[in-house]
Amino acid sequence: MSPTDGADEDPVAETGQRLAIAFERIHRERMAGLPILHPDLAVAVVGGCAWYGHWLGVLVTPWCMNLVLVPAFGSELAHDAQGTKRLLDFPAGQFEFVSSPLDDLGTIATCSLFSPMQAFADQAAAEATAAEVMTALFEPNPDTTAPGQRDAQAGATGAKSARFRPDPGVSRRDLLRGSFRSG
């Protein structure tokens, strides 16, 4: 191994690949044959990006679609116990994430978007929806975004009780429909 081996690795891409590998294994070892599975879907990670030092993306599987947050090493979120719930604020609104351990990645936090996945015609439709979710997540909701709210979101590694500036006006369903205005 040379001193430059791995020097050009992209940590965002690497985290997405590790997440996909872990869920491909879950698909093979724990989910195979279950009737909840959509037979035309496979595991995919869409839109992985760095978000306040954490990794954030959408995980598509044959049984569910989730927003996934992989906490930054050493952050308080990385030490959450299984089942810990946190409300995280994004420009589009506030979403609840639940922590759980995942082999090879440690603690992850997920926000359920779809389950089961039978509403999707195929992999392309599921991945297109996942990409739309990632885009919509970072589009401000003008009806609920308070001045300065985006600046306050940098506290995403704060205490468990931190709500990261609540935004009760946007539901997950509204996010996926692209409708952010109430009424």
The end-to-end span amounts to 60 Å
Rg to the nearest angstrom?
17 Å
Could you name the CATH class?
Alpha Beta
Number of domains: 1
Name the beta content range: 25-35%
Question: Your description of this structure?
Answer:
The structure is a single chain. The chain is built from 4 helices and 6 strands; from the N terminus they run H-E-E-E-E-E-E-H-H-H. Strand 4 (85-90) and strand 5 (93-102) form a beta hairpin. Mean pLDDT is 80; it is low at 1-7 and 145-183. A 6-stranded antiparallel sheet has the order 1-2-3-6-5-4, with helices on both faces. The chain has a single domain (11-177), classed as Yope Regulator, Chain: A (2-Layer Sandwich). The longest helix has 21 residues, at 11-31. It has helices spanning 11-31, 123-137, 149-152, 172-177, and strands at 44-51, 54-60, 65-70, 85-90, 93-102, 106-114. The protein has 183 residues and is of the alpha+beta class.
